[in-house]
Amino acid sequence: MSQLPNTPDAAIVATFATRRLAVIGDSMVDRFLWGKVDRISPEAPVPVVKLEKETRKLGGAANVAANICALGAEVVLFGLNGKDEAGVWMNELLAEHGIDAQGMVEADDRPTTIKTRIIAHNQQVVRTDREDDSPVLDSQVNELLGRLEAMGPFDGYVLSDYGKGVLTDAALKQCISIAKAAGSPIIVDPKKGDYSQYRGVTSLTPNQKEAEQACALSITEETSLTKAGNALLERTAADAVLITRGEHGMALFEKDGQQHHLATEASHVYDVTGAGDTVIAVYTTALAAGTDFSTAASLANHAAGVAVRELGTVAVTADQLREALDEAGQS
After folding, report:
1. Per the structure, how many domains does the chain have?
2. Active-site residues: which are they?
3. What are the strands of the beta sheet with 27-40, ordered from one edge?
4. Average pLDDT of the segment spanning 90-110
């Protein structure tokens, strides 16, 4: 496995502004409750967090869209939004980021997915999830897909699968068909174990744990990593698979047999929340702009290095990515 150079030309980032992408999948709200701990509860051996402030950010597919928007590209988000308080927050956040939400279908039969994290002294104490991960109704899938076709074609398509019910088997097949008809790359961030359902996508971006689960093997060294990468290529008929490996960087496998290792660009890892969203956003936008897989992976690797330096989900901007590339080129 070759070591891939990690300094793409920063000028590539300027081409992102000419691209228009679609993000389809499970959107959610990431809610953060910030406070301090100075005592243990007399009721149970748990810390008492004195809350001081609350912040909210886009999560899941919505965070992918936020990252694409921050890169300067145009993006339309397709998914479900509940008719509840979290749904109102979602709409406010999408408007705040300038994300086109015409692809969002309102659902009165399920809540908006919301992940609430309680943070004390910059450390996560506990997380609560409110969600319904059952498959969405066929009528809702059809409405979403109708909007996707009507608003297309797009230069690139992202399938952000968090296993919350939006990307049903029928939805996946139709999304892949729509992208192929447009002649555009379609990239999936997979969460489900049976990767054969993603057959026909251009590329996948699983993390190492997801790759291990999908291939039923433990990735411990280069041999097992290569076996997993090749197995996913065969199972999905994809052109490339990009496995993200945390502090070990990334590994890119292409169907023509090329294999590359990308060392991590993170000088300090503060929080990995949402880093996978950053990776697929940059990777897909770069492919939509006409780069090859290795260049797109390198750009995504640099963006991930920026994302993990901050607490919580973040959208890496075009300027931040250019700065990271310039710094790497000078080192």
Report:
1. 1
2. 277
3. 47-60, 27-40, 114-120, 123-130
4. 95
